[in-house]
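TEACHING EXERCISE
Course module: macromolecular assemblies
Task: Read the component lines below, then compare them to the predicted structure of the full complex.
Student: A.B.
Group: 4
Components provided:
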Amino acid sequence: MKISIFTSVLLLSILLVAGCESLNQDTYEEFFVIESYAVAGRPLPDITIKRTAEATDFYDDEAVRVNNASVQLLRLDENGATVDQYDYVLQGDNGVYTAVNQVDLIQAGDTYQFIADVPGAGEQIRATTIVPDTFEIISDIPDQLIYQGEEQLEITITNTTPEFRQNVFVFSTVAQEPTEENLTPFYKATFEDDDDVELNDFIINSSGLINEGSFEINPDNTITLRFPWLGVAFYGDNVVVIDSVDENLFDLVRSQEVQLGGSTLSPGEIPNVLFNTEGAIGIFGSMATDTVSTRFVRGF
Amino acid sequence: MKKVFYALISFFFLFANLLHAQDGASVNGYITDAETGETLLTANIALVEVNRGTSSNTSGYYTITNIEPGTYTLAASYIGYRRFEREISLEPGENLRIDIEMIPEGVQLDAIVVESQSEREEQKNIGRAQVSTQLIKELPSVIEPDVFRSVQLLPGVKAASDFSSGLYVRGGSPDQTLILLDETTVYNPTHFFGFFSTFNPDAVKDVRLYKGGYPAKFGGRIGSVLTVFNKDGNRNETQGSVSLGLLASRASLEGPLGNGSWMLAIRRSTLEPVLAALRNSVDGVPDKFYFYDVNGKISNDITENDRLSLAFYTGNDNVSIPFQDDANINLKYGNQTISGQWRRIISENLFSFVTVTGSRYFNEPNFEIAGTPFERNNEIYDFSLKADFEYLPNERHTISAGLWAGNLLLTFRDRFDNQETFNNRISSQYLSAYLQDEWRPTEKWRINAGMRLNTFTEGEYIRLEPRLSTEYRPTDRIRLQAAYGRYYQYLTLITNEAFSGFDLWLTTDDGVPPAFGDQFVLGAKTVPFTGYGFDAEVYYRTMRDLFELDPFINDAAGLDYDELFRFGEGYAYGVELFFEKQRGPFTGFIGYTYGVTRRKFPGFNTPILDDPTRARFYPPKYDRTHDVNITTSLRLTDRWSTNAVFSYATGQAYTQPLGRTEISGIPWDNDPRDIFTVGNVNASRLPSYHRLDLAFSRTGTFFGIGEAEWQIQIINVYSRRNVWFYNFDFDDNPIERQEVNLLPIIPSLSYTVNF
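Instructor-supplied answer key:
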């Protein structure tokens, strides 16, 4: 059969489009990494500065620390103008910089900005956070609760104006008696079934990020949160910590968990983490926090 | 909106009453299998002497109008059946009703068949492909014969993995393909976590895929349409089959009912004995793990010109796994559909179908871990009324028109620790209307022009979709085709390639406009030698306003509906080649696809530290550049036959991590968090995929009761460990890349009795 002109055009188009588009795999680029957390009502935070390493190399977190940066923390007003300026100094040689001023405290609702200059770096490092409003736990907390009993730990907190869409909370228990005998059933089974799991993995047990919209707002504008039993890893005394996090922490944590998998992305499809930083990757986050204590006892 | 609706209703009632006075004669009727009475869809019927022909519609009805009085040879042909011929004489103005009964070919003979120009497979229309149900049952498949896995062998259709039966057609994701069972939309047509489809091959009569450039009759998806029609049932005698397999077993029964027929087909998993045996020695074995589906249909001719049918489907997957002390997972999902259809021959040149459909999809995963319940409930209810008309005013035109009106109710509710965290209920009415004319100005030219109007009340969207296709036949063995269409989509699917049990559908709304795209297709269909076919198609398609669930959303509570989504765009283009041998003891086909598809979403695949609203195109995981599928069927003897499938595809896309760091100071963490830095998303390629599957069948009898068949299959004969994806384990330092592999060699055995 003669190959028609039309068929020739089709075959030619295969060759043309085959050469049209290629998506090149790019190569490793080193970035600076910053890490700092401001907590409302607490002293000015430390900041760690380091570098990334190639994914295929042996990773030594100490070896990538940056010890020659000049660092300042600024407190800004609503127009972005500097209100206070704090100098930082390197502590030892581990890339950790500490504020010279250990008196001033982080103010809820205020804006803080780290700026850092590293010799030889292409651009200045900047990261900004707006500290969430403080809140207070106002409910009476029982001294003791039966694990998975009829009474569940309920915590009522004062409502606050969110800095962005809605407040985002993290609930954590910090076990005060973390022994194998004190593990609750689910965590005991996890510990026994997996050789890679250690007791220390459960001492601080966190709920992850939970939107304020998950909870009911009371008529007096307070919020009542029911603490899920899943958050209790150990019987005995536990400190329950509630954190209200800023948008930077919200973005980093939720996107880092997507990198690990489990979202709607196909396996093997890995996005970058959401960093709200300039000149470096990492996190300058902030939070407001409050704690209560209670004791979880075995049910019968 | 109401005015538009009433205007369209009036138009179609007027249209239905038009009758065109003809001086010419006509011949029409149903074309059926002589043994079972099943209608044959898109069979070819022609008057040999005058080269006038047509194909039967989806009800198996044909009509040839405006014929000069005289004597002719009425011929009909259909793959797998002996050619039909009868001499007919037509008087002026006569309307001759001839219901054609086609006799199945017992043995496939390598006979030379003289065909008229018009006796050409109508399934060679642009962008269209068909898979025979016999081929679906014969091809080696992973444990169960499956409709979707057979469709995945066609050029232009890709599979995401061995574990997924999802259809990725011409660069589109599975939700871009409309799936219709007896005219009813099926929202999650999968069983066993997506491993295979809900369509029981014993119940299916016709499967066709409109890969692209699909006609105005269909709408609602920007990619493609898959139509599945179940059997009506044997009108002449009661017959059935039973098939026993390793994973599931099937039984079907059909027979005559008055002036019609009935059909019932059941399939259920048969894993319980295996699970019970494992439970004593292995942890985490499901307490409950089964799926089933039931297909049924009743048809009846209430008059010579009126046929009623009622079809239903119900299917369910149910899993309960105690994966740990004080922890279990329960998953239940499924579909139910029902459709009632009235087919009427109004006159020799006017045919109508009126269909009432109902479809329900539900998905109810729930977990309880350490006394903390997580519950989700997602349901879709879709009820609709369709009316379609086919009108042939003369031999040059076939006019199709129709209406599709319905109500879609979608509910999505999440509960965490017995408190409702998200509750969304969307009720939307939709109305579509189309008008299409196939114009045949000369013997060599065919032009199909149409328009479809869609309305969707959730968001108050009204959209027009023009469609145009042309065909030119320079010789009797070559068809050159071109098509263009604009398509809109009002639904999006949230799914996981690895696991379809949590599939969730969401719709457009205020602030969430419908996705849309344009498709351009060029094709050439040729018959190089009798009994052979060679097809080539080139396509280009755009995807705009794609809306899908933002993958970075960890908690939907407190968010406005439009905040759940990310909005982006995409495109796809490619070339498909298809060569098939249709006749003789050795048959098969080779399909090759060169395909490229890309997506772009703001904030995704942007360079680190760049403006997060910028974006770059990237290939989704299922983008495979080259794809080849070869299937062969060989009858060795009267009793033995063999089938083989060989698949080769270049590697899927994946993301290569480039750098790493640690974040160790988050107050509520026990351990540091590892973070990758990546460059271009999905810029690397997995190793190529290839696999050979073989099946051997031996027919015999079962104690004289009926025919029996043993089928032995070997999937992945040389146990190629194809890579599904790479996993990067941070527990090792440096990071170790681990392969997660697809299926190894799997033998399988089944026994089927037909009685």
